Amino acid sequence: MDATDYLARIGAAADDPLDTLIERHMIAVPFENLSVHLPEPIELDDDALLEKIVERHRGGFCFELNGAFAWLLRELGYDVTLCSARVARNGGDDGYGPPGDHMALVVDVRGARLLVDVGFGRFAARAVDLERRDGQPDRTGTYAVRDAPDGELDVVCDDTVVYRLDPRARLLTDFLPLSWWHSTSPESPFALGLTCSRLTRAGRVTLAGDRHIVTGDDGSREERTVPEDEQLEIYRDVFGIVLDAVPTVG
């Protein structure tokens, strides 16, 4: 596979700016945990990620989405670093997840270190400059970066800490233990229910179990409960995921 197939998957061109690639990826490729409940293996290597996301038109969670996007960016000539992050609990008031709880990307563009994350669900639809300490407005909120202990960085959205980033380089295989835990442990939030969500031109659309939720950048929100046959239609028509049956939780 080459970058052409991946770019076609997200409706982008090789010479599009980085911010355009980010937003189009988030619109085209859903954040979803269906593999946990189908069940099917989650493999963290380039071939498996590209087969799932590009060829099968599926999505995934952070290790898969950011892992695949890192491959695309490197094919396009970007300098990409895989980084470990710890998800903040209650904005950090209740602590943080373990190292490797989340994976994000740091992209070097002409000497600027930019945080790129297409694998967190609702997150910035453009790169966040890690060197800046002022607010950086985005269609999904205002992001900021704060210095944290031991050289780590707190990534903040609308004054709430989202996660604590360790900017040191990691390998994709470093995330295998937490990927396995998130996909198998009954204590993982991904084991508790089904979620499939993607950015839209005007907001976000989500299917969380039997709840179909449409939110707008303007703050609007519509939510309704849908039966299983309509869930399958939404997976197919809204997310491009064709299923024979709705995955079973538990």
TrEMBL record:
User: What SUPFAM superfamilies has UniProt attached to this entry?
Assistant: Cysteine proteinases (SSF54001)
InterPro entries given in the database record: Arylamine_N-AcTrfase, Arylamine_NAT_domain_sf, Papain-like_cys_pep_sf
The record's annotation in Pfam families points to: Acetyltransf_2
State the coiled-coil residue ranges.
Answer: none
Q: What organism, scientifically named, is this protein from?
A: Actinomycetospora chibensis
Protein name, per record: Arylamine N-acetyltransferase
Q: Write out the similarity annotation.
A: Belongs to the arylamine N-acetyltransferase family.
The organism's lineage is: Bacteria, Bacillati, Actinomycetota, Actinomycetes, Pseudonocardiales
| Domain of life, per lineage | Bacteria
